[in-house]
Amino acid sequence: MNRIGGECSKDDVAIYQGPTEPLPDGVPTYTVQILNVCASDCSISDIHVSCGWFSSAWLVNPSVFRRIYYDDCLVNDGNALGPGDGISFQYANSFPYPLSVSAVSC
């Protein structure tokens, strides 16, 4: 939900995920976009995502997205995404991980 004015919340971060070309050995790949959709000029940092046992057959830049603990992944090294900013990455796995925002700081 976008709000005008007030504090931001985890609802101001959107996650989009979709399939991309598989690796040469046939392992499926997925592209993930994480966006700050806050309508009130807010920067959002310390974005944590519920991610299960997230892993990838190819390296995901850990400063972009990394699993810290089970079901806790950190976005952008905890640094802020400004209004309208986003970050994206690709991962390879036999199935897509369900990803959802679990916590943010405003």
Automatic annotation (TrEMBL):
Pfam families: TPD1_C
PANTHER family recorded: PROTEIN TAPETUM DETERMINANT 1-LIKE-RELATED, TPD1 PROTEIN HOMOLOG 1
GO biological process, any: cell fate determination
Keywords: Signal
Protein's name in the database: TPD1 protein homolog 1-like
